[in-house]
Write a structure and sequence with these properties.
This protein is of the alpha+beta class and 77 residues long. The protein has one domain. It has two helices and four strands; from the N terminus they run ββααββ.
């Protein structure tokens, strides 16, 4: 079963002014983390220590259909 994750992720200025949201289709928290870190640019690597906690706290919605694991959307300011 796959889930749609809505992950809040904060990186301080100048990388991001307020943070952002990641929408990810993944099978579990670990796959979600891998997809975000592969998709994201290397400037925010130092803030990944909070990312695992943010993924665990993310809103998750079970998908009715089987979908490919992917970063659907990333919105950062």
């Amino acid at each position: 079963m796959k889930f749609l994750y809505i992950v809040e992720h904060f990186c301080p200025f100048p990388l991001s002014e307020y943070g952002g949201i990641w929408n990810v289709i993944a099978e579990n928290d670990e796959e979600c983390y891998d997809l975000i870190t592969e998709y994201d640019d290397e400037d925010s690597v130092e803030y990944y220590s909070n990312l695992r906690k943010n993924i665990q706290n993310a809103r998750k919605f079970a998908l009715a259909e089987e979908k490919v694991s992917i970063v659907v959307e990333s919105f950062t300011t």
